[in-house]
Design brief:
This protein has about 130 residues and is of the alpha+beta class. Helix content is about 20%, strand content about 40%. Keywords: Membrane, Transmembrane, Transmembrane helix.
């Protein structure tokens, strides 16, 4: 991820896409907001489909003429991940959503990132 410049002297402790968290603020592309009282959610819209790999079909066609064992290439499977994982933050005066591509570990990564952000929000001091 890229470092997010902000006016405060606080270091960025957690970065989730284009959202950055310091110990007291959420830094979004359009401003800086208090971390205390922010609500974090994650939505996993990943769909997994499994099918015969195209290379398996080609190899089966080529090798079926040499021996019938070429049909075993049709057992080659591949997984396709479709959809996205979105992480949203809502607080007083702001709402922001970041979307990430689906993958085998993206749901677990997003849940872990949101758990860290929730813990930071719970520990953040209220702003005056």
């Amino acid at each position: 991820m890229y470092p997010v410049p902000h006016g405060g002297g606080e270091p960025v402790l957690l970065q989730i896409g284009d959202m950055a968290l310091t110990s007291t603020h959420v830094i979004l592309p359009y401003g800086q907001f208090p971390l205390h009282g922010s609500q974090w959610t994650v939505q996993d819209s990943t769909q997994v489909s499994e099918g015969i790999a195209p290379v398996g079909i080609v190899l089966a066609i080529v090798f079926v003429w040499f021996c019938l064992l070429g049909l075993l290439f049709l057992l080659m499977k591949e997984r396709r991940y479709l959809g996205f994982v979105s992480i949203s933050v809502t607080g007083p005066g702001f709402h922001h959503v970041a979307q990430f591509p689906a993958g085998p570990q993206s749901g677990a990564w997003a849940a872990n990132a949101v758990a860290q952000a929730r813990a930071m929000a719970a520990a953040a001091p209220p702003m005056a």
